[in-house]
Amino acid sequence: MVELTWKEAIVKVFEDEKKALHYANIAELIAERGYKTTLGAKPKNTVNTQMASDINDSGEKSIFSRVGGGIYILRKFLGDSSLLATEEDEIEIVPNQNQKSEKEHYKIINAFGIYWDRNLVHWKTTPDLLGIQQIGASVVNFKDQIGIYLLHDSRETIYVGQAIKQPLGKRLKDHTTDRHGGRWDRFSWFGFYPIDEKGELLTNIKLDNITIQSLGDVLEAILIESIEPRQNRKQGNFFSGLEYLQQEAPELKKQLKAGLLIDLLGKL
To answer: How far is CA 45 from the centre of its chain?
Structure first.
């Protein structure tokens, strides 16, 4: 079977669901249903770019229509208002969809991970910090990421720090042996470097157009994501599609298999 193109896979999901969907949900459904097997490191971003570019290039002739922040639908379904409802019923129609969007600038926070497990990291001299954007996506190593991080115990956040002069992997490694070493079992991080489609960190970017509003959005988003206040139903502004799920270090998997083999041989 010939693998579908991204555009074909997106259309297939819309034909299946027959309703407006967020691009992140579309990417997950593409993976779950096997419409594409090669997803790359940023499938959610790819889906968003595919539809946004089609709208920008084709205007009213595009087969897609944007009906809210990150939410799209097939244009042929626009006439049925019942198909515009999402799970949260919070879509606002976006006017002037045939106008080209302004050039996108990198956000201050371009990737993040929440409550990653300390025990899933192999704490060698330069530990790898492995994550994926969704199931089936390529693994990204965030050991050289820079930004802000938090250390957590079972009850609360015990430490907040910067990984600027030293990258994230090195800073976290240091905390395994310093005065905080025995106090934390999970960590969260918010990274400045974006990731390309190959899963590599883009370390030579310039963060432009930073405003008071964008700084406020970042601070709000970090607080919402890290302390999860009960009255906040949404993620922080602009954080959709930026979260990465932790992956266990392959060295730990090998150690576990070796241990199981030794136990098995000992019982023979």
So the answer is: 9
Exposure of 79 by Cβ count < 10 A (0-12 exposed, 13-18 middle, 19+ buried)? exposed
Contact 132, 245 (CB under 8 A): yes
> Which residues of the chain fall below pLDDT 70?
1, 81-106, 207-209, 228-238
Q: Is 206 left (phi over 0), alpha (psi -120 to 50) or beta?
A: beta
How far apart are the C-alpha atoms of 150 and 170, rounded to whole Å? 14
The confidence score (pLDDT) of residue 50 equals 96
User: What does the alpha-carbon distance between residue 150 and residue 118 come to, in Å, rounded to a whole number?
Assistant: 12
In terms of Cβ atoms closer than 10 Å to its own Cβ (0-12, 13-18, 19+), residue 254 is exposed
What pTM value is reported for the model? 0.78
Domains of the chain: 6-84 (1.10.10), 111-252 (no CATH)
> What is residue 195's DSSP assignment?
B
Residue 252 tokens, joined:
């730990």
d(CA 32, CA 136): 9
21-22 β-sheet, strand order: 21-22, 71-74, 64-68
Q: Tokens 């956000």 correspond to what residue?
A: 107
Phi/psi of residue 236, each to 5°? -60, 155
Angle subtended by helix axes 43-58 and 23-32, to nearest 10: 120
What are the start-end ranges of the H helices in 188-249?
Answer: 212-227
- Any alpha helices (H) in the chain, and if so which ranges? 6-17, 23-32, 43-58, 168-174, 212-227, 250-266
Q: What is the per-residue pLDDT across 213-232, written as a single tens digit (0 to 9) for each?
A: 777 877 887 777 777 665 55
